[in-house]
Design goal:
Layout (H helix, E strand, L loop, with lengths): L2 H23 L8 H13 L2 H7 L4 E9 L3 E8 L5 H29 L7 E7 L5 E8 L2
Helix pairs in contact: 1-4
């Protein structure tokens, strides 16, 4: 595995850890429920984007966090450099269970704290510098 791919995978975990930390530390709670609660949660997560970009400026050119109604969130990371997609996808596959564990432990409970109802899901998508998809996986609450 090239050092660029290793660095990219490590950056993924930094970004995920920051998102998890933001969700876990947030004291937000919405009485509105539904799409309003989802939008409040997404806005709280988006507040971490400047720090993600600052710490990973050489790795990512863009980070997007979008609501996926009725009860999902999509995190999209675009790599700064064109990478070997299959190699990066294989590396991400190796860490998929760790990502799921973090979601189950911190993110899904934070989403519930915001009042998001229904079947919770989070999608992580990683794009190459040219915009082609390298890897995408949707996790659902257990």
């Amino acid at each position: 595995m090239t050092s660029k791919v290793v660095r990219s995978v490590l950056a993924v975990f930094t970004a995920v850890a920051m998102a998890v930390g933001m969700a876990a530390c947030s004291s937000g709670s919405s009485s509105a429920g539904g799409e309003d609660a989802l939008n409040e949660y997404v806005e709280a997560e988006r507040s971490a984007i400047p720090e993600i970009m600052e710490q990973n400026a050489e790795v990512y050119t863009d980070v997007q966090i979008e609501p996926a109604p009725p009860s999902g969130v999509v995190f999209t990371y675009t790599y700064a450099d064109q990478l070997d997609g299959p190699v990066v996808a294989e590396a991400l596959d190796q860490y998929a269970s760790d990502m799921e564990e973090g979601l189950d432990k911190d993110v899904f409970p934070a989403m519930r704290q915001y009042g998001i109802k229904g079947d919770l899901n989070v999608t992580f998508t990683y794009l190459n510098a040219d915009g082609t998809e390298i890897w995408s996986k949707t996790y659902t609450e257990k």
